[in-house]
Structure formats: C-alpha cells, structure tokens
Design brief:
Strand order of the largest sheet: 3-2-1-4-5-7-6
Helix content: 40-55%
Largest sheet: 7 strands, mixed
Number of strands: 7
Order of helices and strands: HHHEHEHEEHEHHHEHHHE
Bound molecules: S-adenosylmethionine
Length: 269
C-alpha cells in the first residue's frame, strides 16, 4: 500500500512515485484484486467497461483481456498515474477526470468498476451516483475496498501499536485505507446513490513487503505522521512492528501480511 499516493490533497504526485507504484506495489499488492473485481462484476466479452480511479490501470488491463482493448476506459485524476498507464498500455483509452464528476455521458458502460479508491473520494455517495449515472440500465457497478481495521489480522494490531506510541494522530493517519470497511455503511452508501446491491463478498489477500522495515517506511514515512513524531517514537513504532508482524514474517525477513477486502456488486435500476 502506498499512503503517499493518497495523502496528497491534489493527488498530483511525481512521475517517479507513479512508476514506483507500478513497479513495486502493483505486483506486490494491487494486481491480486483485479481478477476478483472483474469476476464479481461478471465482466464478459463484448461489454463496455470503465475503471474509475484507475491509477496505473491494473483493473482496466485485466478487463481488456476479457472484453477487448477497444471496450475499456480508465479514468483517474492523477496525471502521473495516467502517464504510466499510457506507457504500459498505449492501446487503452486513459482519461483524466474526477470520480465526483465523470467525463462521460449517461448510460455509457455495461460495467463500472473501482478498486482501492472509494475511501479516498471526498464525496463517496456523489462518486457512486456518478458511477451509476454512466452505467447502462441494468448495468453493474462494482467496488473493491479494504475491510475494516478490526478484522485485519496484521494491520489492526499494527495500527493499535502505532497509536499506543504516537496517539490518536497515528490511528487517524494510518486508518485512511480502511475507512470504507464497514459493510453496512457501504450498503447504505450504495442505496443512497440509487444503486441496488446484488451481492457482497469478502476476499482474503496478502500485502507483500521485502521486510517489516519496508512496510513501516511505506505506511509511516510517506504520511504526515513521520514529520509529527520524534526519531525515538518512530524507532519504537519500528521495533513494535517487528513484534506484531512476527507471525507474518518469513525466516529471510520477507513479510506476507494478510489483507481482507470487501467487494460490493450493485445493479443500476
Ligand atoms: C490506491 S490507488 C488505486 C489505483 C488502482 N485502482 C489500483 O487498484 O491500482 C488510488 C487511486 O485513486 C485516485 N483517486 C483518488 N481520488 C480520486 C478522485 N476523486 N477521482 C479520480 N481518481 C481519484 C488516485 O489518483 C489513485 O490513482
């Protein structure tokens, strides 16, 4: 996970950060969910598919393998992410745009997908309404988000430990990813956006890091938390992470932290 990608208010990140996201985090984390999301949405040949907040485009690329390149569009507000998406797959249509105001006409897509992004949208119901607006009647809107922290076997204890050392600011800054994890709230969010929830499912995946220190660097150093705590507190968090993540750390130091997600699949009435 890359908190730096989402912690910027403008979401404009340097190109090197987007390249690093594609090179390191897509294979180690984001790629595993794309087939899950496409399957949950029932994406099949011939459909038109939109990937909202596509980042470097892993969901759009996965969907393109199912429906054909010409039938897929990816949209994101971040220029650097789109530059990488275009470099990797120049044949897909990549557009710059805000999930809260999608640059597409009504009823344009059979399936509208979004992976690991809803929690970062300032107006989540409005974004879901937009996803519904651009979906065809009877079309599908499917969203994948991390489950709540209290069911995360690795990240739950990790954030508790960081909050123990660095207080409520640590909990709040490290919890963004899990902000849409309550399934009942997610269901009501879809309903308030005029979408009919057809299915929800839980998926157990893995966040892979070369070491515990690499995870701490990603999750702490790339948020404002690092600037707000002393070197001593940071060191205590690093040591604490080695303890709480020990069950998920292999002999060579590599970390495979379990990571739970929800997929919500809805129909546009
Ligand atoms: C964690 S990344 C996930 C990217 C991609 N879906 C994936 O699975 O690799 C979150 C993405 O959401 C995008 N994003 C955040 N807020 C957005 C908004 N309001 N409109 C469009 N994109 C947004 C960011 O630019 C970033 O690319």
């Amino acid at each position: 996970m890359t908190s730096s990608i989402e912690s910027s208010e403008t979401f404009q990140i340097p190109l090197e950060a987007a390249e690093a996201y594609e090179e390191a985090f897509v294979p180690a984390f984001f790629s595993q969910w794309a087939p899950v999301l496409c399957a949950a949405a029932g994406v099949i040949a011939g459909q038109k598919v939109l990937d909202v907040a596509c980042g470097t485009g892993i969901v759009a690329r996965t969907a393109a393998d199912l429906v054909g390149t010409a039938n897929v569009v990816g949209v994101d507000m971040n220029d650097a992410m789109l530059t990488v998406a275009r470099r990797v797959r120049p044949d897909i249509d990549w557009r710059q745009g805000d999930a809260g105001e999608l640059p597409f006409p009504d009823l344009a897509f059979d399936a509208v997908l979004s992976q690991m992004a809803l929690m970062f949208f300032p107006e989540r119901a409005a974004a879901l309404r937009e996803m519904g607006r651009v979906a065809a009647a009877g079309g599908t809107v499917a969203v994948l988000v991390p489950s709540a922290l209290d069911v995360q076997p690795a990240y739950g204890p990790l954030v508790d430990m960081a909050a123990h050392h660095a207080g409520a600011q640590a909990r709040s800054l490290l919890s963004t990813y899990f902000a849409c994890g309550d399934l009942d709230e997610l269901r009501s969010l879809f309903a308030s956006a005029g979408l009919r929830v057809m299915a929800t499912s839980g998926h157990a995946g893995t966040a892979r890091f070369p070491s515990v220190d690499a995870l701490v660097a990603t999750e702490v150093e790339s948020t404002p938390l690092r600037g707000r705590i002393s070197d001593d507190v940071y060191e205590r968090i690093r040591r604490g992470a080695h303890d709480v993540l020990a069950p998920f750390t292999a002999a060579d130091g590599a970390l495979e932290a379990p990571f739970e997600c929800h997929v919500v699949t809805a129909s546009k009435p």
